[in-house]
Known about the structure:
Blueprint: E1 2-6, H1 15-27, E2 30-36, E3 39-42, H2 46-52, E4 59-66, H3 69-80
Helix pairs in contact: 1-3
Amino acid sequence: MEKVITIKSTQGLHAQLANKLVQVSNKYDVEVYLQYDNVKIDAKSILGLMSLAVPNGENVKVVATGNDSEKAILEIEKLLG
């Protein structure tokens, strides 16, 4: 399952938001990746997420596979959007 989400945080994908995203990604039985600017990062890697440096208002593609992919994407959308 995949979904394009617009980053709504005024600070973009900052450390605290990346930490919450890692927590959500680890909560479910899924593999989750964020794709931005043709770079695909494991959403369970805080350093990887920080390296994306996604600014406010930009779109990221979230790709999840596994038993809880729909639940994970819905929660990630609430967190980022």
